[in-house]
Design a protein that fits this description.
Number of domains: 2
Strand order of the largest sheet: 1-2
CATH topology of the largest domain: Growth Hormone, Chain: A
Shape: globular
Largest sheet: 2 strands, antiparallel
Strand content: under 5%
CATH architecture of the largest domain: Up-down Bundle
Helix content: over 70%
Distance between the termini: 17 Å
CATH superfamily of the largest domain: MFS general substrate transporter like domains
Length: 428
Protein backbone atom coordinates (compact mmCIF):
# COMPACT_ATOMS: atom_id res chain seq x y z
CA UNK A 1 0.00 0.00 0.00
CA UNK A 2 1.17 3.52 -0.72
CA UNK A 3 2.18 5.61 2.30
CA UNK A 4 3.91 8.35 0.34
CA UNK A 5 2.75 11.72 1.75
CA UNK A 6 3.07 13.19 -1.75
CA UNK A 7 0.69 10.74 -3.38
CA UNK A 8 -1.86 13.40 -4.35
CA UNK A 9 -0.12 14.98 -7.35
CA UNK A 10 0.57 11.82 -9.41
CA UNK A 11 -2.75 10.23 -8.54
CA UNK A 12 -4.92 13.25 -9.27
CA UNK A 13 -3.12 13.99 -12.53
CA UNK A 14 -4.15 10.52 -13.68
CA UNK A 15 -7.59 10.82 -12.07
CA UNK A 16 -8.20 14.19 -13.75
CA UNK A 17 -7.34 12.78 -17.17
CA UNK A 18 -9.74 9.89 -16.57
CA UNK A 19 -12.46 12.35 -15.53
CA UNK A 20 -12.16 14.17 -18.88
CA UNK A 21 -12.25 10.82 -20.66
CA UNK A 22 -15.41 9.84 -18.78
CA UNK A 23 -17.07 13.07 -19.93
CA UNK A 24 -16.14 12.34 -23.55
CA UNK A 25 -17.41 8.78 -23.25
CA UNK A 26 -20.70 9.97 -21.74
CA UNK A 27 -21.21 12.42 -24.60
CA UNK A 28 -20.48 9.72 -27.19
CA UNK A 29 -22.90 7.31 -25.51
CA UNK A 30 -25.64 9.95 -25.51
CA UNK A 31 -24.97 10.93 -29.13
CA UNK A 32 -24.96 7.36 -30.44
CA UNK A 33 -28.15 6.41 -28.60
CA UNK A 34 -29.85 9.56 -29.87
CA UNK A 35 -28.66 8.80 -33.43
CA UNK A 36 -30.14 5.29 -33.19
CA UNK A 37 -33.39 6.75 -31.87
CA UNK A 38 -33.67 9.25 -34.71
CA UNK A 39 -32.62 6.85 -37.46
CA UNK A 40 -34.69 3.82 -36.46
CA UNK A 41 -37.27 4.77 -33.82
CA UNK A 42 -37.10 1.12 -32.81
CA UNK A 43 -37.26 -0.08 -29.22
CA UNK A 44 -35.72 -3.37 -30.36
CA UNK A 45 -32.71 -1.52 -31.76
CA UNK A 46 -32.23 0.41 -28.52
CA UNK A 47 -32.60 -2.76 -26.45
CA UNK A 48 -30.05 -4.50 -28.65
CA UNK A 49 -27.64 -1.59 -28.20
CA UNK A 50 -28.03 -1.86 -24.41
CA UNK A 51 -27.38 -5.60 -24.53
CA UNK A 52 -24.32 -5.13 -26.72
CA UNK A 53 -22.94 -2.60 -24.21
CA UNK A 54 -23.55 -4.92 -21.24
CA UNK A 55 -22.31 -8.23 -22.67
CA UNK A 56 -18.54 -7.51 -22.58
CA UNK A 57 -18.65 -6.89 -18.85
CA UNK A 58 -20.42 -10.21 -18.30
CA UNK A 59 -18.53 -12.43 -20.75
CA UNK A 60 -15.14 -10.77 -21.15
CA UNK A 61 -14.89 -9.07 -17.75
CA UNK A 62 -13.60 -12.04 -15.69
CA UNK A 63 -10.92 -12.84 -18.29
CA UNK A 64 -10.01 -9.15 -18.48
CA UNK A 65 -9.53 -9.13 -14.72
CA UNK A 66 -7.13 -12.06 -14.91
CA UNK A 67 -5.14 -10.26 -17.60
CA UNK A 68 -5.12 -6.98 -15.67
CA UNK A 69 -3.49 -8.83 -12.77
CA UNK A 70 -0.80 -10.17 -15.13
CA UNK A 71 -0.05 -7.10 -17.23
CA UNK A 72 1.30 -3.63 -16.30
CA UNK A 73 -1.86 -1.78 -15.30
CA UNK A 74 -0.66 1.57 -16.59
CA UNK A 75 -0.30 0.18 -20.11
CA UNK A 76 -3.61 -1.64 -19.87
CA UNK A 77 -5.26 1.76 -19.32
CA UNK A 78 -3.25 3.39 -22.12
CA UNK A 79 -4.12 0.67 -24.64
CA UNK A 80 -7.79 0.58 -23.57
CA UNK A 81 -8.13 4.36 -23.95
CA UNK A 82 -6.31 4.26 -27.30
CA UNK A 83 -8.48 1.47 -28.71
CA UNK A 84 -11.64 3.26 -27.61
CA UNK A 85 -10.40 6.49 -29.25
CA UNK A 86 -9.52 4.69 -32.50
CA UNK A 87 -12.97 3.11 -32.55
CA UNK A 88 -14.48 6.58 -32.22
CA UNK A 89 -12.29 7.77 -35.11
CA UNK A 90 -13.76 4.97 -37.22
CA UNK A 91 -17.29 6.09 -36.26
CA UNK A 92 -16.37 9.69 -37.13
CA UNK A 93 -15.20 8.59 -40.58
CA UNK A 94 -18.42 6.66 -41.21
CA UNK A 95 -20.62 9.50 -39.96
CA UNK A 96 -18.74 12.07 -42.03
CA UNK A 97 -19.18 10.01 -45.20
CA UNK A 98 -22.86 9.39 -44.49
CA UNK A 99 -22.42 5.62 -44.38
CA UNK A 100 -22.98 5.06 -40.64
CA UNK A 101 -25.41 2.18 -40.03
CA UNK A 102 -26.94 0.77 -36.82
CA UNK A 103 -24.71 -2.31 -36.97
CA UNK A 104 -21.69 0.00 -37.04
CA UNK A 105 -22.94 1.57 -33.82
CA UNK A 106 -23.31 -1.90 -32.27
CA UNK A 107 -19.68 -2.65 -33.11
CA UNK A 108 -18.53 0.69 -31.71
CA UNK A 109 -20.47 0.13 -28.48
CA UNK A 110 -19.16 -3.42 -28.14
CA UNK A 111 -15.51 -2.39 -28.59
CA UNK A 112 -15.90 0.58 -26.24
CA UNK A 113 -17.49 -1.65 -23.60
CA UNK A 114 -14.71 -4.20 -24.05
CA UNK A 115 -12.12 -1.47 -23.53
CA UNK A 116 -14.00 -0.41 -20.42
CA UNK A 117 -13.94 -4.01 -19.15
CA UNK A 118 -10.14 -3.75 -19.08
CA UNK A 119 -9.82 -0.10 -18.08
CA UNK A 120 -12.12 -0.01 -15.04
CA UNK A 121 -10.48 -2.84 -13.03
CA UNK A 122 -7.01 -1.55 -13.97
CA UNK A 123 -7.84 1.90 -12.60
CA UNK A 124 -9.50 0.58 -9.44
CA UNK A 125 -6.66 -1.84 -8.73
CA UNK A 126 -4.09 0.92 -9.33
CA UNK A 127 -5.92 3.25 -6.95
CA UNK A 128 -5.32 0.93 -4.00
CA UNK A 129 -1.55 1.05 -4.67
CA UNK A 130 -1.37 4.84 -5.19
CA UNK A 131 -3.70 6.07 -2.42
CA UNK A 132 -3.01 5.56 1.31
CA UNK A 133 -5.59 3.22 2.89
CA UNK A 134 -7.06 5.93 5.15
CA UNK A 135 -8.01 8.01 2.09
CA UNK A 136 -9.57 5.26 -0.06
CA UNK A 137 -13.12 5.99 1.10
CA UNK A 138 -12.69 9.69 0.29
CA UNK A 139 -11.41 8.87 -3.20
CA UNK A 140 -14.34 6.49 -3.64
CA UNK A 141 -16.63 9.35 -2.66
CA UNK A 142 -14.99 11.56 -5.28
CA UNK A 143 -15.59 8.86 -7.88
CA UNK A 144 -19.25 8.66 -6.90
CA UNK A 145 -19.50 12.46 -7.16
CA UNK A 146 -17.92 12.34 -10.61
CA UNK A 147 -20.37 9.71 -11.84
CA UNK A 148 -23.24 11.73 -10.44
CA UNK A 149 -22.03 14.86 -12.20
CA UNK A 150 -21.78 12.92 -15.47
CA UNK A 151 -25.38 11.77 -15.06
CA UNK A 152 -26.49 15.37 -14.59
CA UNK A 153 -24.26 17.06 -17.17
CA UNK A 154 -23.94 14.62 -20.05
CA UNK A 155 -27.56 14.49 -21.32
CA UNK A 156 -28.21 18.27 -21.48
CA UNK A 157 -24.65 18.99 -22.64
CA UNK A 158 -24.93 16.29 -25.28
CA UNK A 159 -28.27 17.69 -26.46
CA UNK A 160 -26.83 21.21 -26.62
CA UNK A 161 -23.76 20.07 -28.56
CA UNK A 162 -25.88 18.04 -31.00
CA UNK A 163 -27.89 21.19 -31.72
CA UNK A 164 -24.68 23.14 -32.41
CA UNK A 165 -22.37 20.53 -33.96
CA UNK A 166 -22.61 17.78 -36.52
CA UNK A 167 -22.31 14.25 -35.13
CA UNK A 168 -18.69 13.77 -36.31
CA UNK A 169 -17.56 16.92 -34.51
CA UNK A 170 -19.25 15.86 -31.28
CA UNK A 171 -17.61 12.44 -31.50
CA UNK A 172 -14.26 14.15 -31.99
CA UNK A 173 -14.53 15.47 -28.41
CA UNK A 174 -14.12 11.90 -27.19
CA UNK A 175 -10.84 11.52 -29.08
CA UNK A 176 -9.49 14.69 -27.48
CA UNK A 177 -10.54 13.65 -23.96
CA UNK A 178 -9.01 10.18 -24.50
CA UNK A 179 -5.69 11.85 -25.32
CA UNK A 180 -5.98 13.87 -22.10
CA UNK A 181 -6.40 10.58 -20.22
CA UNK A 182 -3.48 8.87 -21.97
CA UNK A 183 -0.97 11.73 -21.61
CA UNK A 184 -0.42 11.55 -17.79
CA UNK A 185 -0.10 7.77 -17.96
CA UNK A 186 2.86 8.09 -20.33
CA UNK A 187 4.89 9.98 -17.71
CA UNK A 188 3.58 8.93 -14.29
CA UNK A 189 4.56 5.46 -13.03
CA UNK A 190 1.77 3.30 -11.64
CA UNK A 191 2.82 0.81 -8.92
CA UNK A 192 2.51 -2.89 -9.65
CA UNK A 193 1.82 -5.60 -7.06
CA UNK A 194 4.74 -7.96 -6.38
CA UNK A 195 4.96 -10.96 -8.72
CA UNK A 196 3.90 -14.26 -7.20
CA UNK A 197 6.79 -16.58 -6.42
CA UNK A 198 7.06 -20.31 -6.91
CA UNK A 199 8.25 -22.64 -4.15
CA UNK A 200 11.75 -22.50 -5.69
CA UNK A 201 11.81 -18.71 -5.61
CA UNK A 202 11.13 -18.10 -9.30
CA UNK A 203 8.42 -15.91 -10.73
CA UNK A 204 5.20 -17.83 -11.18
CA UNK A 205 3.48 -17.54 -14.59
CA UNK A 206 0.41 -19.77 -14.59
CA UNK A 207 -2.01 -19.83 -17.50
CA UNK A 208 -4.73 -17.22 -17.75
CA UNK A 209 -7.40 -19.85 -16.98
CA UNK A 210 -5.43 -20.85 -13.88
CA UNK A 211 -5.36 -17.19 -12.87
CA UNK A 212 -9.12 -16.96 -13.37
CA UNK A 213 -9.74 -20.11 -11.33
CA UNK A 214 -7.48 -18.71 -8.62
CA UNK A 215 -9.61 -15.56 -8.54
CA UNK A 216 -12.81 -17.59 -8.16
CA UNK A 217 -11.24 -19.69 -5.38
CA UNK A 218 -10.04 -16.53 -3.67
CA UNK A 219 -13.61 -15.21 -3.46
CA UNK A 220 -15.15 -18.56 -2.50
CA UNK A 221 -12.61 -19.11 0.29
CA UNK A 222 -13.30 -15.73 1.92
CA UNK A 223 -16.82 -15.87 3.43
CA UNK A 224 -17.03 -12.15 4.15
CA UNK A 225 -16.07 -11.13 0.62
CA UNK A 226 -18.35 -13.76 -0.94
CA UNK A 227 -21.32 -12.63 1.14
CA UNK A 228 -20.63 -8.97 0.34
CA UNK A 229 -20.55 -9.78 -3.39
CA UNK A 230 -23.80 -11.78 -3.10
CA UNK A 231 -25.47 -8.83 -1.35
CA UNK A 232 -24.28 -6.47 -4.10
CA UNK A 233 -25.57 -8.84 -6.78
CA UNK A 234 -28.93 -9.14 -5.04
CA UNK A 235 -29.21 -5.36 -4.81
CA UNK A 236 -28.56 -5.06 -8.53
CA UNK A 237 -31.35 -7.57 -9.17
CA UNK A 238 -33.98 -5.64 -7.20
CA UNK A 239 -32.92 -2.09 -8.10
CA UNK A 240 -32.10 -2.28 -11.83
CA UNK A 241 -35.72 -2.82 -12.92
CA UNK A 242 -36.96 -0.06 -10.63
CA UNK A 243 -34.83 2.57 -12.34
CA UNK A 244 -35.30 1.07 -15.80
CA UNK A 245 -39.09 1.19 -15.40
CA UNK A 246 -39.13 4.79 -14.18
CA UNK A 247 -40.71 6.15 -17.41
CA UNK A 248 -43.66 3.80 -16.89
CA UNK A 249 -43.94 4.91 -13.26
CA UNK A 250 -44.16 8.53 -14.43
CA UNK A 251 -46.73 7.85 -17.15
CA UNK A 252 -48.91 5.16 -15.59
CA UNK A 253 -48.84 6.12 -11.91
CA UNK A 254 -48.15 9.86 -11.76
CA UNK A 255 -49.82 10.63 -15.12
CA UNK A 256 -46.80 12.78 -15.91
CA UNK A 257 -44.67 13.67 -18.91
CA UNK A 258 -41.04 14.24 -19.86
CA UNK A 259 -40.56 17.03 -17.33
CA UNK A 260 -41.63 14.75 -14.50
CA UNK A 261 -39.19 12.06 -15.65
CA UNK A 262 -36.44 14.64 -16.03
CA UNK A 263 -37.17 15.95 -12.55
CA UNK A 264 -36.80 12.51 -10.98
CA UNK A 265 -33.55 11.83 -12.83
CA UNK A 266 -32.16 15.26 -11.98
CA UNK A 267 -32.86 15.12 -8.24
CA UNK A 268 -31.35 11.64 -8.14
CA UNK A 269 -28.20 12.96 -9.81
CA UNK A 270 -28.03 15.94 -7.45
CA UNK A 271 -28.39 13.54 -4.53
CA UNK A 272 -25.53 11.38 -5.83
CA UNK A 273 -23.28 14.43 -6.17
CA UNK A 274 -24.04 15.71 -2.66
CA UNK A 275 -23.70 12.24 -1.14
CA UNK A 276 -20.37 11.79 -2.88
CA UNK A 277 -19.17 15.16 -1.64
CA UNK A 278 -20.18 14.21 1.91
CA UNK A 279 -18.25 10.95 1.69
CA UNK A 280 -15.24 12.75 0.18
CA UNK A 281 -15.13 15.25 3.06
CA UNK A 282 -16.12 12.92 5.89
CA UNK A 283 -14.58 9.61 4.85
CA UNK A 284 -17.27 7.59 6.64
CA UNK A 285 -17.16 5.70 9.92
CA UNK A 286 -13.90 4.09 11.02
CA UNK A 287 -15.42 0.77 10.03
CA UNK A 288 -16.44 1.39 6.44
CA UNK A 289 -19.02 -1.41 6.43
CA UNK A 290 -21.15 0.60 8.92
CA UNK A 291 -21.25 3.51 6.46
CA UNK A 292 -22.28 1.23 3.62
CA UNK A 293 -25.05 -0.54 5.53
CA UNK A 294 -26.39 2.75 6.93
CA UNK A 295 -26.48 4.12 3.39
CA UNK A 296 -28.28 0.97 2.24
CA UNK A 297 -30.98 1.51 4.87
CA UNK A 298 -31.45 5.07 3.60
CA UNK A 299 -31.61 3.90 -0.01
CA UNK A 300 -34.15 1.23 0.91
CA UNK A 301 -36.35 3.80 2.64
CA UNK A 302 -36.13 6.15 -0.34
CA UNK A 303 -37.00 3.51 -2.96
CA UNK A 304 -39.84 2.12 -0.83
CA UNK A 305 -41.26 5.61 -0.38
CA UNK A 306 -41.26 6.16 -4.15
CA UNK A 307 -43.44 3.07 -4.57
CA UNK A 308 -45.81 4.15 -1.79
CA UNK A 309 -46.19 7.78 -2.92
CA UNK A 310 -49.77 8.60 -4.01
CA UNK A 311 -50.18 9.87 -7.56
CA UNK A 312 -51.17 13.33 -6.33
CA UNK A 313 -47.99 13.81 -4.23
CA UNK A 314 -45.30 13.92 -6.89
CA UNK A 315 -43.07 16.29 -4.81
CA UNK A 316 -42.85 13.51 -2.21
CA UNK A 317 -41.51 11.19 -4.93
CA UNK A 318 -38.90 13.82 -5.78
CA UNK A 319 -37.80 13.93 -2.13
CA UNK A 320 -37.67 10.13 -1.98
CA UNK A 321 -35.62 9.99 -5.18
CA UNK A 322 -33.20 12.55 -3.76
CA UNK A 323 -32.78 10.36 -0.64
CA UNK A 324 -32.05 7.33 -2.83
CA UNK A 325 -29.46 9.27 -4.81
CA UNK A 326 -27.87 10.85 -1.73
CA UNK A 327 -27.33 7.48 -0.06
CA UNK A 328 -26.05 5.65 -3.14
CA UNK A 329 -22.43 6.89 -2.74
CA UNK A 330 -22.57 5.94 0.94
CA UNK A 331 -23.38 2.38 -0.16
CA UNK A 332 -21.00 1.98 -3.10
CA UNK A 333 -18.00 4.08 -2.06
CA UNK A 334 -17.14 2.29 1.20
CA UNK A 335 -17.59 -1.15 -0.39
CA UNK A 336 -15.07 -0.26 -3.09
CA UNK A 337 -12.71 1.14 -0.44
CA UNK A 338 -13.03 -2.09 1.57
CA UNK A 339 -12.09 -4.18 -1.45
CA UNK A 340 -9.19 -1.91 -2.37
CA UNK A 341 -7.86 -2.05 1.19
CA UNK A 342 -8.46 -5.70 2.05
CA UNK A 343 -8.11 -7.66 -1.20
CA UNK A 344 -4.54 -8.63 -2.10
CA UNK A 345 -3.28 -6.14 -4.74
CA UNK A 346 -2.30 -8.93 -7.15
CA UNK A 347 -5.89 -10.29 -7.01
CA UNK A 348 -7.84 -7.06 -7.32
CA UNK A 349 -8.32 -7.10 -11.10
CA UNK A 350 -9.98 -10.49 -10.90
CA UNK A 351 -12.08 -9.69 -7.84
CA UNK A 352 -13.37 -6.41 -9.27
CA UNK A 353 -14.32 -7.95 -12.61
CA UNK A 354 -15.98 -10.98 -11.00
CA UNK A 355 -18.13 -8.57 -8.99
CA UNK A 356 -18.89 -6.51 -12.09
CA UNK A 357 -19.75 -9.58 -14.16
CA UNK A 358 -22.08 -10.98 -11.50
CA UNK A 359 -23.84 -7.63 -11.04
CA UNK A 360 -24.14 -7.03 -14.80
CA UNK A 361 -25.52 -10.53 -15.34
CA UNK A 362 -28.43 -9.57 -13.10
CA UNK A 363 -29.55 -6.84 -15.53
CA UNK A 364 -31.12 -9.01 -18.26
CA UNK A 365 -32.34 -11.55 -15.69
CA UNK A 366 -34.02 -8.99 -13.45
CA UNK A 367 -35.58 -7.14 -16.39
CA UNK A 368 -36.96 -10.43 -17.72
CA UNK A 369 -38.66 -10.99 -14.36
CA UNK A 370 -39.72 -7.41 -13.69
CA UNK A 371 -41.37 -6.81 -17.08
CA UNK A 372 -44.16 -9.39 -16.70
CA UNK A 373 -44.56 -8.59 -12.99
CA UNK A 374 -44.99 -4.86 -13.72
CA UNK A 375 -47.44 -5.62 -16.52
CA UNK A 376 -49.49 -7.74 -14.13
CA UNK A 377 -49.52 -5.64 -10.94
CA UNK A 378 -48.14 -2.23 -11.98
CA UNK A 379 -44.76 -0.56 -11.54
CA UNK A 380 -45.18 0.88 -8.03
CA UNK A 381 -45.16 -2.53 -6.28
CA UNK A 382 -41.75 -3.27 -7.78
CA UNK A 383 -40.36 -0.12 -6.13
CA UNK A 384 -41.80 -1.25 -2.80
CA UNK A 385 -40.31 -4.70 -3.30
CA UNK A 386 -36.96 -3.22 -4.34
CA UNK A 387 -36.84 -0.91 -1.33
CA UNK A 388 -37.77 -3.69 1.06
CA UNK A 389 -35.11 -5.83 -0.62
CA UNK A 390 -32.54 -3.14 0.23
CA UNK A 391 -33.66 -3.12 3.86
CA UNK A 392 -33.53 -6.92 3.96
CA UNK A 393 -29.98 -6.94 2.55
CA UNK A 394 -28.90 -4.33 5.10
CA UNK A 395 -30.42 -6.40 7.91
CA UNK A 396 -28.66 -9.53 6.69
CA UNK A 397 -25.37 -7.67 6.50
CA UNK A 398 -25.75 -6.47 10.09
CA UNK A 399 -26.49 -10.01 11.29
CA UNK A 400 -23.73 -11.84 9.40
CA UNK A 401 -20.42 -11.81 11.34
CA UNK A 402 -18.26 -12.47 8.22
CA UNK A 403 -19.64 -9.27 6.66
CA UNK A 404 -19.36 -7.16 9.80
CA UNK A 405 -15.75 -8.29 10.37
CA UNK A 406 -14.54 -8.22 6.76
CA UNK A 407 -12.18 -5.37 7.63
CA UNK A 408 -10.53 -7.38 10.42
CA UNK A 409 -8.56 -9.58 8.03
CA UNK A 410 -6.80 -9.34 4.72
CA UNK A 411 -6.72 -12.38 2.47
CA UNK A 412 -3.39 -13.12 0.84
CA UNK A 413 -3.13 -14.24 -2.78
CA UNK A 414 -2.27 -17.73 -1.54
CA UNK A 415 -5.57 -17.95 0.35
CA UNK A 416 -4.13 -17.31 3.82
CA UNK A 417 -5.77 -14.74 6.07
CA UNK A 418 -3.90 -12.31 8.25
CA UNK A 419 -5.48 -10.19 10.97
CA UNK A 420 -5.30 -6.44 10.44
CA UNK A 421 -6.32 -3.40 12.42
CA UNK A 422 -8.85 -1.19 10.60
CA UNK A 423 -7.22 2.08 9.58
CA UNK A 424 -8.21 5.36 11.12
CA UNK A 425 -9.73 7.92 8.79
CA UNK A 426 -7.53 10.99 9.13
CA UNK A 427 -7.92 14.51 7.83
CA UNK A 428 -4.40 14.74 6.41
Amino acid sequence: MNDNPRWQRPFFLIWGGQAFSLLGSSLVQFALVWWLTQETGSATVLATATLVAVLPGIVIGPFAGALVDRWPRRWVMVVADAVIALTTVWAITLAWSGSLQPWHVYVVMFIRATGGAFHWPAMQASTSLMVPPQHLARVAGMNQTLYGLMNIMAPPLGALLLSLLALPLLLLIDVVTALLAILPLLFIPVPQPPAQQTAGGGTQRPSMLSDLRAGVRYVLNWPGLLLLMLIATGLNFVLTPAFSLMPLLVVDHFQGGPWHLGGLESVFGVGVVLGGLLLSAWGGFRRRIYTSLLGLIGMGLGVTLIGLTPAALFPLALAAMFLAGFTQPLVNGPVMAIMQAQVAPEMQGRVFTLLGAAASAMTPLSLAVAGPVADAVGVSPWYVAGGLGCLLMAGLGLMLPPVMHIEDERQGADGTAAAVVPVEVSSD
